[in-house]
Amino acid sequence: MSDSPISTPNTESAPTPLAPALYLIPVTLGDTPIDQVLPAHNADIIRGIRHFVVEEIRTARRFLKQVDRNINIDDLTFYPMGKHADKATFSTYLKPLRNGEPVGVISEAGCPAVADPGADLVAIAQGEGLKVVPLVGPSSILLAVMGSGFNGQSFAFHGYLPIDGGQRMKRLKQLEARSIAEDQTQLFIETPYRNAKLFADICSACNPTTRLCVAAGLTTEQEYIRTQSIKRWKQTGLPDLGKIPAIFLIYK
């Protein structure tokens, strides 16, 4: 019998290569620890991607380092899709995917392609029959509906309302009427420093019995979610949300 040591075969399998797809990667809604709102699976996906289409390169780099500080940012390629980007170039961003490499999409907050230019990129990918994979992460829209107590079976997100005071009041009355007629929750947002003005316009335009939910700073230490009638809101007022992103919801 040989005295040589018995060799044990290596049973560890090599990492499975990431399937070529357009991965929609959610980010935090604020300075929230990543492990509180994003699954570990997302980090595994991110480590396998070398091409990222991003709304803002600087914040995308910071997010990736928060996911894994060992990620070599210099090895990555970033393609801008922010407000100053030329949408005519978006199709070229998918060239790596067409060549069999995965591509990630990262927006500034929450889920990409929802109230976000990433939707244009997804539309191109879908038009070409390329695989699209949305990953799990926080959506301020869904979180606001969940916390409002309003109809979660039928709701509509309208983004920003008109800046002009007269047009905005008209739009608010239209959305209130739609909420009543269709039994539908109506959601909209405003630039944080205009939150107080929008709140005042809602209280002025809507009926006292209409309910308003204000959902601000979701998933962060500043989180604030409250639902009251317009009549009650006029009595209590709104806390200072001048620097906190907020979603406003109205329902009959």
Task: Give the tags.
252 residues, Methyltransferase, Cobalt-precorrin-4 Transmethylase, Domain 2, alpha/beta, 9 helices, five-stranded parallel beta sheet, Cobalt-precorrin-4 Transmethylase, domain 1
Question: Briefly, what is this?
Answer:
Helix 7 (165-182) crosses helix 8 (195-205). The chain has helices at 34-37, 40-47, 57-67, 95-98, 118-127, 140-148, 165-182, 195-205, 230-236; strands spanning 22-25, 51-54, 77-80, 103-106, 132-134, 155-160, 185-189, 211-216, 224-229, 246-251.
Description:
The protein is built from nine helices and ten strands. The protein is α/β, with parallel strands linked by helices and 252 residues long. It has two domains: 22-134, Tetrapyrrole methylase, N-terminal domain (Cobalt-precorrin-4 Transmethylase, domain 1); 140-251, Tetrapyrrole methylase, C-terminal domain (Methyltransferase, Cobalt-precorrin-4 Transmethylase, Domain 2). The strands form two sheets. A five-stranded parallel sheet has the order 3-2-4-1-5, sandwiched between helices. Strand 8 and strand 9 form a beta hairpin. The longest helix is centred in the last third of the chain and has 18 residues, at 165-182. It is elongated and about 55 Å long. The model is unreliable at 1-14 (pLDDT under 50).
